[in-house]
Amino acid sequence: MPIIPLYGHEALRARLASAHARGALPPSLLLHGPRGVGKQRLALWIGQMLLCDSDGDRPCGACRHCRYVLDLAHPDLRWFFPRPRLPNPDPRTQDVLDDFVDAIGERRKSNGLYSAPGGSEALYVATVRAILQLASLTPAMGRRKIFVIGDAERMVSQEGSDQPANAFLKMLEEPQADTQIILTSSEPGSLLPTIRSRAIAVRVPPLVEPASRSFLGDPVVNAALDRLDLPASLEQRIELMEGAPGMLLESADRAQAIAAAREFLDAVSQGRAEWSRAVAKMSAARARGFFADVLDAMTVQLHARLRGAAGRSDASRVTAIAHSIEHIEDAKVRVDGNVNPQLLGASIAREVATWSLS
Amino acid sequence: MRFTIAREKLQEGLSAVTAAVPTKTTLPVLANILLETTDKGIRLSGTDLDIAVSTEVLADVETQGSITIPAKKLAEIARELPSAPVKMSSAGEQKVTLECGRSRFKLLGLPRDEFPSFPTVRFNESWRVRSGDLQKLIGHTAFAASTEESRPILNGVLWELRPERMRMVATNGHRLSKMELPITSEGAPSGDLIVPPKALEQIRKLFPAEEDLEIARGDNHLAFRSPFTSVFTRLIEGPYPNYEQVIPKDNDRVALADKNVLAQSLRRMSIIASDQTHRIRLAFNAGMLKLGVQTPDLGEAQDEVPINYEGDPLEIGFNANYLIEILRYMPTDEVRLTFKAAERAATIEPEGWKDDARYLGLVMPLKLID
Amino acid sequence: MHQIAILASAVVDQIAAGEVVERPASVVKELVENALDADARFIEIVIEDGGRSRIRVADDGFGMRREDALLAMRRHATSKIRDASDLVGVSSFGFRGEALPAIASVSEMEIETSANGGGGTLVRAEGGEIIEVRDAARRTGTTVTVSRLFYNSPSRQRFLRSARSEWRAIADLIASTAILRRSVRVLVSHEGREVMNLPAAPSVRARVAALWGAQFADRLVDVDDVRGEVHVTGLVERPSDVGTAARRIHVVVNGRAIRDGGMVRAAEAAYRSTIPAGTRPSVLLDITVPADAVDVNVHPAKVEVRFRDRWLVERAVESAVRRALGSPRSAASIGVPAFWAVPKIAFSPVDVEVLQGPEDASPLLGGSVTAVDIVMPERNREEAIPVPPLRQLRHTYIMFEREDGVVFIDQHSAHERVLYERFMHALEHGDAASQRLLFPLTLHVGPQEGDAFEEHREMFERLGYEIEGFGGHTLLVQSVPAPHPRFDAERCLRESLDALTGSRLPGTASRHEKLAATVACKAAIKAGDSMSDGEMRSLFSALARTVLPAHDVHGRSTVVHLPWDEIERRFGRR
Question: Does ipTM surpass 0.90 in this model?
Answer without folding.
Answer: no
